[in-house]
Amino acid sequence: MPSLHGETFGFVVEDLLTLPADRPVLVDDFRTLPAHVAPLLAWRGQAVFLLPTPEFRGHALGTRFADPARARANWGNSDHSGALAKRLARDELWDEEVRRQALGLGLPVLDVDGSQDAARLANWPRCSC
Predict the structure, then answer these.
(1) pTM of the predicted model, to two decimals?
(2) Which 3 state secondary structure label does DSSP give 97?
(3) CB 53: neighbour CB atoms within 10 A?
(4) With 0-12 CB in 10 A as exposed, 13-18 as middle and 19+ as buried, what is 96?
(5) Confidence of residue 117 (pLDDT cuts 50, 70, 90)
(6) At 59, is the pLDDT very low, low, confident or very high (cuts 50, 70, 90)?
(7) How far is CA 112 from CA 7, 73, 78, 93, in A?
(8) CA distances (Å), 21 to each of 37, 50, 54, 68, 128, in order?
(9) Is residue 126 very low, low, confident or very high in pLDDT (cuts 50, 70, 90)?
């Protein structure tokens, strides 16, 4: 779940500062917004925000929660298809906010549709803009 007002972002930064600075670091943190990251960057291309296409997210979550036991563990005995639809709608709103903030701050956004593996995504063009 996204943190409110970025109150947990400091913990992420503390963890990152303990890592070696001589290599790229991939941070997968759903709760972090571009507005939290931007003040820490030495250049705009130092961060890129990966956003799944709605189709890719729908497929990934649909597959993940196709197992009734897993869906029940997450959503109880409620309507699982309804819960998935609400989750997808919530995530789409979050992605829109991340995109809005990133583009407003001049930070790059990379749409992920599942057609490229992680190694290819990691070779996204870097710049010192």
Answers:
(1) 0.81
(2) helix
(3) 14
(4) exposed
(5) confident
(6) very high
(7) 27, 28, 30, 16
(8) 17, 21, 34, 43, 16
(9) low
CA-based nearest residue to 52, from 13, 103, 95, 100: 95
Distance CA 14, CA 9 (A): 9
Average pLDDT over residues 19-37: 80
Decide: residue 107, CB within 10 A, 0-12 exposed, 13-18 middle, 19+ buried: buried
Report residue 5's pLDDT band, with 50, 70 and 90 as the boundaries.
low
The residue written with tokens 């036991």 in the block is 69
Cβ atoms 39, 102 nearer than 8 A: no
